[in-house]
Amino acid sequence: MSHTFTAAAVQMVSGDDLAANLARAEALVAEAAGRGAQLLALPEYFYLMPADEQARLAITEPFGAGPLQQRMAALAARHGIWLLAGTLPLRGSQPQRFCNSSLLYSPQGQCAARYDKIHLFGFDDGKERYAEADTMQPGCEVTSADTPWGSMRLSVCYDLRFPELYRHGPAPAIITAPAAFTHTTGQAHWELLLRSRAVENLAFVIAPGQGGVHPGGKRTFGHSMIVDPWGQVLACHAEGEGIALATLDLDRQQTWRTRLPALQHRRF
Predict the structure, then answer these.
(1) Distance between CA 223 and CA 181 in Å, rounded?
(2) Beta 224-227 vs 204-207: how paired, if at all?
(3) d(CA 88, CA 56)
C-alpha cells in the first residue's frame, strides 16, 4: 500500500447543456491529473443541472452500458487514475424514477464500485423546495470499494446527515461525498458535516461539490473539500469551477487511529 497519495475534489457549476458539462468535467480531470492527482472525484450531477429535474430521466442508462458510463471509463483509463464519477443517472426498477448512482472507475477503465444514493433529499422552507423522491428511487445497499489506499465508503450529498451509513464494516479509510448542496443548507452545515464524518470515522473525506448558480436560479454552496482524519481541512475550493488538491498521508492516519482507538472502543 502506498503511504501517501494525491487526491482531487473537482468543483463544477454544471448547467443544462450535457455536452458542455462533460467537456468541462474532462478538462478539469485532465488538469487535476496533470497536477499529480491519483484519485479524482467529480461532483453530484456533474453531467447536468437542469431547471427541470425531469430532464435527467431522458438520459438514464442501464448499468454497464451507455455513453455517459463509457465516457467516464475512457477518461479514467486515459489518465491512468481512479475516478469517482460523482453521480450518473442509471435506470431503476421504478417507472419514471432513476437511481442517482456514484460510480468508481479504476485506472484500467473498469467500474470498481457502484453506489445508489440511499437518502433522498427533501427540503421546503416556503421559498426553496427540493424533493428528490419525485424523480429518484433510493438505493438500499451500503457500498465499499477496495482501493490501493484502503477501503473507500461511497456516499452522496444528503447521506452526510446519516452517520450510521459510515459505521458499517469495514471501517473506511476514505469517504467520498460528491454533492450539490444548496447554498442555504451548505452555509449552515456543509463543513460541519464533513469534519464530523472525518473525525468520528478517523477517515479522509473527499467531497467535491457544485458551486454556483444553475438554470432555474438554484444556487449551490461549493466549498469542495478534502478533510483529514483529525478533522483538518487540507484543501478547499470555495466558489466557481476549480480543484481542491491535497496529499493524503496514510501513516499519519494510522498514527491517529493508534493513539485514539475510538473505532475499537465502540460498544453499539
Answers:
(1) 10
(2) antiparallel
(3) 9
Label the pairing between strands 111-116 and 242-249. unpaired
- pLDDT over threshold 60, residue 1: no
Give the pLDDT confidence score for residue 129 in this predicted structure. Answer: 86
Annotated catalytic sites, by residue?
44, 117, 157
Dihedral of CA 34/244/259/198: which sign?
Answer: negative
Q: Which helix (H) or strand (E) holds 23?
A: helix 18-34
Residue 89 burial (CB count, 10 A): 23
What mean pLDDT is predicted for residues 246-265?
A: 97
First to last CA, the chain: 30
Q: Give the confidence band of 2 by pLDDT, cuts at 50, 70, 90.
A: low
Q: Which triple of cell numbers denotes residue 17?
A: 447543456
Distance (Å, whole) CA 265 – CA 268: 9
Q: Among candidates 9, 46, 207, 220, which has minimal Cα distance to 123?
A: 220
Three-state SS across 72-132?
HHHHHHHHCCEEEEEEEEEECCCCCCEEEEEEEECCCCCEEEEEECCCCCEEECCCCEEEH
Band of the pLDDT at 75, cuts 50, 70, 90?
very high
Distance, CA of 165 to CA of 221 (rounded, Å): 23
Q: Look at residue 174 and give its three-state secondary structure.
A: strand
CB of 209 closer than 8 Å to CB of 180: yes
> From start to end of the chain, where are the E strands?
4-11, 39-41, 82-91, 98-105, 111-116, 122-124, 129-131, 144-147, 150-154, 174-176, 204-207, 224-227, 233-237, 242-249
Q: The whole model's pTM is what?
A: 0.97
C-alpha cell recorded at residue 144:
465499499
Q: For the chain, what percent of residues have pLDDT higher than 90?
A: 94
